[in-house]
Amino acid sequence: MANRMEKNLNDELLALLKKERYISLTTVDYETKAPDVRVLSWIYAPDRETLRFTIDNRSKMMENMKHNSGIVITVIGNGSTYAIAGEVKILKEEIEDVPIKLALAELDIKEVKDIMFYGAKMTLEPRYEKTYDAEAAAKLDNQVMKAMKTV
């Protein structure tokens, strides 16, 4: 049902966001004040009101979120597209026991909107594959997910 709005994640979205997933993150560029959109995959929903995600701690997104805590995460799944908005805080500037420089952020969800245009549904969800060493990718994924779950 297009354009439905909720205050937190429903059962279907909560289940989708319990594991790595293709999402987009929109912040406000702290210099230009224009929207800045990036794609991520390390995301985790510990509950209906919260999303955790990791980002490169040297990235422009980090600076953007330090200057403006309002963000939107876009998720495609369950036949629709959702915009999840709220206030973000940086929980850790650097995650220990992870071999790359990642920060851990947490979104306090204020609004979940079904933004699919009227009369349509998504019939395929985005798919991706990691193009580097599969064993190294699996090890890193496990380290990052563990860090997000054990805050």
TrEMBL record:
Domain Pyridoxamine 5'-phosphate oxidase N-terminal: 9-95
Residues that span the membrane, as ranges: none
InterPro entries, per database record: Pyridox_Oxase_N, Split_barrel_FMN-bd
Name listed for the protein in its UniProt record: Pyridoxamine 5'-phosphate oxidase
Organism: Sinobaca qinghaiensis
